[in-house]
Design goal:
The protein is an alpha+beta fold. Strands 4-3-2-1-5 form a five-stranded antiparallel beta sheet. The radius of gyration is 17 Å and the shape is globular.
Length: about 180
């Protein structure tokens, strides 16, 4: 049996990497803003040689928790499978002074501490020129709020061929049950 010592050394010294994966929202329903650019849904992908792939995003609830909780925002997390139909990939870096391992740990911890089933999932104010109303949130608001709760601000992103309604209205930090790291 042969081993590639370079691959083994790389795995032994591997650190997590982070990226936002964007795909057209709601299985293509994000295209209804035509002729404006389509709306994106983001997932945060954390890749680590030791723990594999962790994907985190916010989703509206369906009937999995009963009619009373229909349409509320919940944390959606899964492992070892990447989102499909990705049209945008935006790399992220931990804030200065925070290790990659600490950044990964805090993101996962805050997502698990999220107050699911509390805030209603909202659609953008307009189909064209998509933006959220103040105090209303969607899956992009969830990820913007998660990142803000860990790094203290919402990262600037650029998606010229797509709209990102909700990124401008991050969910408040109290939904993530913890103080921001500044």
């Amino acid at each position: 049996m042969s081993t590639n010592s370079s691959a083994v050394a790389q795995a032994q010294h591997s650190e997590p990497s982070f990226a936002l994966y964007g795909r057209v929202a709601a299985n293509g329903a994000g295209n209804v803003s035509w002729p404006d650019p389509p709306d994106l849904h983001f997932s945060l992908v954390i890749t680590d040689a030791y723990s594999g792939i962790t994907v985190i995003d916010g989703q509206p609830t369906l009937m999995e928790t009963g009619f009373r909780n229909l349409g509320l925002i919940k944390t959606n997390s899964y492992t070892n499978s990447l989102p499909d139909k990705v049209v945008v990939r935006i790399p992220l870096m931990p804030p200065e002074g925070m290790s990659r391992q600490e950044f990964a740990r805090k993101l996962i911890e805050r997502s698990r501490n999220f107050s699911s089933y509390v805030a209603p999932y909202s659609l953008p104010q307009n189909v064209r020129g998509s933006r959220m109303r103040p105090g209303q949130y969607n899956s992009s608001s969830y990820l913007a709020g998660l990142l803000k709760s860990v790094i203290g601000h919402v990262p600037l992103i650029s998606t010229p061929q797509y709209q990102t309604p909700g990124w401008e209205t991050p969910m408040p930090e109290h939904f993530f049950k913890g103080e921001a790291i500044r």
